[in-house]
Design brief:
Order of helices and strands: EHEEEHH
CATH class: Alpha Beta
Number of strands: 4
Number of domains: 1
Strand content: 15-25%
Number of helices: 3
Strand order of the largest sheet: 1-2-4-3
Length: 126
């Protein structure tokens, strides 16, 4: 019996076909190569940034954000779709690395997460 996809992507109108194709590929690649144990909903919007928490100005101008899954809710990732294909790819993987480190119970500083995302992108594109 085929395994159901754990990472579900939704694209808003205005997100380019190239970005759609690349992010779908990366999500499936991440599922195959990593142990994705939770449902993760990925929303890719047409803007150049996402708002993770409207009350927190520090987090307003971001290219992506991740909220942890709960027993009732899937993990949620938001990715800004108005980026270069390389930036959008890195943003998705960066947020998926946050999920993976959370799943493993590890701390996750931004620099380390970004390095891991770059390594994963290089591996995925081979």
């Amino acid at each position: 019996m085929p395994r159901l996809c754990r990472i579900r992507l939704r694209f808003a109108p205005g997100v380019s076909a190239l970005i759609r194709t690349r992010l779908m590929y990366l999500a499936r690649w991440f599922e195959v190569t990593q142990n994705v144990e939770h449902e993760i909903s990925v929303s890719v919007g047409p803007d150049s940034y996402v708002i993770s928490d409207p009350s927190d100005r520090e987090y307003r101008d971001r290219q992506g954000c991740f909220s942890y899954p709960t027993k009732r809710e899937p993990g949620r990732i938001k990715v800004a779709g108005r980026q270069s294909i390389q930036e959008a790819s890195l943003t998705l993987l960066h947020e998926l690395v946050h999920y993976d480190r959370w799943r493993l119970g590890k701390t996750h500083g931004e620099v380390r997460v970004e390095r891991e995302a770059v390594k994963l992108l290089i591996q995925a594109m081979r």
